[in-house]
Write a structure and sequence with these properties.
globular; binds 2-amino-2-deoxy-6-O-phosphono-alpha-D-glucopyranose; Rossmann fold; 3-stranded antiparallel β-sheet
């Protein structure tokens, strides 16, 4: 079941989502968190940084696993998701451990299997953050006829490559393949927070709430999870 919270503005949505983290970390300081990249969570991460600096949230015992990483990409590449997370969160807030799939591995399949094993060994996610792609992907689980259950190497959809090209300069090669968390670790999460912003997401959000489970809309599978909250601003809600 998806609980929908529409906030007046992006700033309000960031505060609402940050409150969910505050409650989660208070209840379980050693929470296992799933984290996302993209432009949408940046304001939320800034809110978490301010609250952490103000002593209102303590992440020092929390462990994190990110949803995905480009492949192949060096961790030091400015567009790697490792670099993104270091810049926007990890360099500013202390966590017990932060993991992201290794975009430099010679054996991506072993990397994916190992990542799933690490998440399972950690007990699965207490709170998993998701965004949504313009084509309805979650993590980098692109619309397809069938889906691997575990984390996997995925060919990025044309829509995704176009949407994410804004981050790459002309002299940077944009990866067209990624390592993505699979549906199993996502659905093992006790609680899922989907965070969405902006008018460019209104069409996909409308489809997400049309009362159907769409095989070509990976985010619609979330209707089958018992505890999903989607926090979105008015622009994304289409209201
Ligand atoms: C990327 C990530 C997704 C994210 C999506 C939306 O493709 N793999 O996890 O949800 O971007 O990003 P944005 O917030 O920039 O629209």
């Amino acid at each position: 079941m998806i609980k929908k919270i529409v906030c007046d503005s992006y700033e309000d949505a960031c505060r609402y989502a940050a409150d969910i983290y505050a409650g989660q970390l208070k209840a379980k300081p050693d929470s296992v968190l799933g984290l996302a990249t993209g432009s949408t969570p940046i304001g939320l991460y800034n809110e978490l940084i301010s609250r952490s600096r103000a002593g209102l949230i303590d992440f020092s015992r929390a462990r994190t696993f990110n949803l995905d990483e480009y492949y192949p990409i060096k961790a030091t590449h400015p567009q790697s998701y490792r670099a993104f997370m270091e810049e926007h969160l990890f360099s500013k807030v202390k966590f017990a451990d932060t993991r992201i799939m290794n975009g430099e591995t010679a054996d991506p399949h072993a990397e994916c299997a190992g990542y799933d094993a690490q998440i399972e060994a950690a007990g699965g996610f207490d709170l998993l953050l998701l965004g949504i792609g313009v084509n309805g992907h979650i993590a980098f689980i692109e619309p397809a006829a069938s889906y691997p259950l575990g984390s996997y190497l995925v060919d990025l959809a044309e829509d995704t490559i176009v949407a994410n090209s804004r981050f790459f300069s002309e002299d940077e090669t944009q990866p067209v393949i990624a390592l993505s968390m699979g549906l199993s670790p996502i659905f093992m999460a006790k609680r899922i927070l989907m965070f969405v912003s902006g008018a460019n997401k209104a069409d996909i959000i409308k489809k997400l709430f049309d009362g159907y489970l769409h095989t070509d809309l990976p985010a619609s599978f979330l209707h089958l999870h018992p505890d999903v909250t989607i926090v979105l601003d008015k622009a994304a809600s289409g209201e």
